[in-house]
Fold this protein.
Amino acid sequence: MVNGPPSYAATSTTTPIVNRPQLNGHRTASSDAVTRTKILLLGLRRAGKTSIQQVLFNNLPPKQTFYLETTMRTVKHAFDTVIPLEIWDCPGNITVETLGAPLSHFSTMIFVIDIRDLYNNPISKLVEFIVAAYRENPNMSLEVFVHKAEKLQEDDKIENFRQIHERVSDRLLDISPEYEQIQLNFHLTSVYDHSLHEAFSKVLHKLVESLPYLEDLLNVFCANSQSPKAFLFDTTSRLYIATDASPVDSATHNLCCDYLQMLNSFGSLYKSATPHSRKPLPFTPPPSASSTSSLSPVPPRSSSSTSPGTPTSSTTRLTPHPSKDLFYPSAATSLHPSTPGTTLTYHLITSQLALLALLPTSVYEGRRGLLEFNVVFFREGVQEICEVEKETRDGR
């Protein structure tokens, strides 16, 4: 096991209307060459739309969101996780007519409401888009983020959240009884805690077609490793792509997010030299045939050699062995020193995904080999699913 995974810098690309290839990090797929799942991010001015995007996908510290400029025009953000995403960050004054694309092109609509705002204007705009989306794209997932929850006390927070939920439902019912069947999902969010990550993770789950297969792999891993809980996280955004069948406990989820953030922060300290920066080793010609043993190096054969036994020149140099395509670091930390104790483990699965699992400390220390064995098969399964997902999307 090698501690300290590499840090993955955020690779979200910001472009006004026209997409461009991503330039940094390990996510470099061209936006033009990939069929992306589109997410529409809406809300009134200063509701927190851009803050949500920047905190999740650009690793912006929450305290710096105060200095973000107001969004004046629609901006697309391309981000690659288990599926390629395209998030449309829209200005507060946008309407269905000025959006620039039919609502049928979007898989999800996220409407952000400031929990402290006067509700009449944001609810009116939300209902306008809900009605239009229901007509054009009945299968669109409709999400409402009641944002900036950290600004209120717990009782006021819950009461405001309830009022917003009720007013939206009543407004839709007043327009037409048929809108009562529209499925709306409300989330209480804040950039200052992990409620935003948890809410956006649930949004992402509805977009990943291979989610049942990833969940099955996690269930098998937990059963074979005696793990009470396991998550498959995106390493950059810290969104969990999938989890096992056991209920998600917010405290456990928050702990995994913090641990992943810590590993990403220190991962750059563990970078190794690339093969290109290593000097090739000089080749020493073998001794005469009479004294050559079976352990002596065999000189490489040249296409211009006249005899297999002809020794090469002393200036010949060995070509360095090609490095592995991907390095899979792992890490572990003990959560409770008391017996039996719990250990949180990290294993990189792909360049974008990592497995974080809770294990009894006794199991981790006594059956370490079995755990690594299960991780290898889990990794192979996830990589195969990701390859099929990519092939299917490329064929569309």
In short: The longest strand covers residues 353-360. Residues 211-394 form a domain with the Beta-Lactamase fold (CATH 3.30.450.190).
